[in-house]
Amino acid sequence: MVSPESQAMVKHAGLRSSRASLCFSDGCLFLGGVLLALLLVWSFSSFAYPPSPLQTLASSSAVAGEAKPECASAAAPPRDAEESGNFYDDPELSYSMERPMTGWDEKRREWLRQHPSLASGGSRERVLLVTGSQPSPCKNKIGDHLLLRLFKNKVDYCRLHGCDVFYNNVLLQPQMFSFWAKYPVVRAAMLAHPEAEWIWWVDSDALFTDMDFELPFDRYKDHNLVVHGWTNLIYEKKSWTSINAGVFLIRNCQWSMDFMDVWAGTGPQTPEYERWGNILRSTFADKLFPESDDQSALVYLLLTQKDRYGDKIYVENEYYFEGYWEGIVGTLPNITRDYEDLDRQGPQALRRRHAEKVSKYYASRRAEAEAAAAAPQKRPFVTHFTGCQPCSGDHNQMYSGESCWNGMVKALNFADNQVLRRYGYVRPDLMDTAVVKPIPFDYPAGGGGGGG
């Protein structure tokens, strides 16, 4: 039985409890209202004042940084191992032709294994173009200017086609002079550029007059040396001019090293130089000078050791791997007009402006249009000013110096117009180097002519 005092105490306790509950409920309602108000204010401000891009970038970068580094490549390229030992560490290694190279294929293969990113791959052949001139200034007053423009032409071509360039202006082996000076340079270039599959020697007086054409390397896959010439003149006529040794491709391999040693064995650095001059002059009835030269020596090796070397030497005559300038220069204005007609009448892609880096695509489109139109005259790939010596000013007495220098200017401007067009300009007169004009949209269909 509960006493009245107990009932009073319970009643009083219940009253306090209900009052406390009421106060707690009121507090909760108050706090809830405050939170709701803050939420509404925040929501409104996020619409009115969205986060800045910098804030968003900082936030996403922080999250990305926790997961993995930003811009990480999906597949890292093979790493080169330059710290590994290779043939360069051999103290007996010589860049000179005075000491024969042995085991070059294996040495080069090991170096390429250490440097996979530099190896040739797929349809791409790594090429090093090598050229040069004498160490001293030119005697001809316009010689240095012509040599500069001739070198620029080679740089332009290689920029468009992805080959490297080495310009040499010193005699690496002074006793190997004149025609023979290029072979020590080619030999040294092979060692300095083991990544290059081909070394491409181009005389200083030769230039590219078709800036779109690419060498047909598939044709040469079973050969180690490519020269321009005619086999009937080699084996039937026995002419020392049956080939031209001023432009050649030579594969970077042991066969080439050995062949150049034999080839250069007829040069001025040997005690047999005079004897070889007599042998070559007696072999070739059309050779009028007594010195042993590299071109006659190469023809002689093909004649006398065809079984040993013939299968690896490709004599190219299907295009102007190098072409004699006197028969080319006079045709350049007509070729310019033929190509303008082709561009005017052909697909719009031939006239479309484009970045220089994508020139290969448009070159292929032009080649397709040429084949379809059966163009009467194609641009000569390389024009070689054989017999003209722009630096010394000497020249073959068959023609005048003016015809040499004017021919060079015309050929250089013809080639340079093909480059300048990518930059929106063209020379309207091939004999006027200084004057250019901007070309209009859809040129030449849009009007104007260039390079006649």
UniProtKB/TrEMBL annotation:
Pfam families: Glyco_transf_34
Gene3D superfamilies, per the entry: Spore Coat Polysaccharide Biosynthesis Protein SpsA, Chain A
UniProt keyword annotation of Nucleotide-binding present: no
Any one annotated GO CC term: endosome
GO molecular function: galactosyltransferase activity
Transmembrane region(s): 21-44
InterPro entries reported for this sequence: Glyco_trans_34, Nucleotide-diphossugar_trans
Keyword Secreted: no
Keyword entries, A-Z: Glycoprotein, Glycosyltransferase, Golgi apparatus, Membrane, Signal-anchor, Transferase, Transmembrane, Transmembrane helix
Compartments in which it is found: Golgi apparatus membrane
Chief localisation class: Golgi
Its membrane topology: Single-pass type II membrane protein
Source organism superkingdom: Eukaryota
Similarity comment: family membership: Belongs to the glycosyltransferase 34 family.
Protein name: Uncharacterized protein
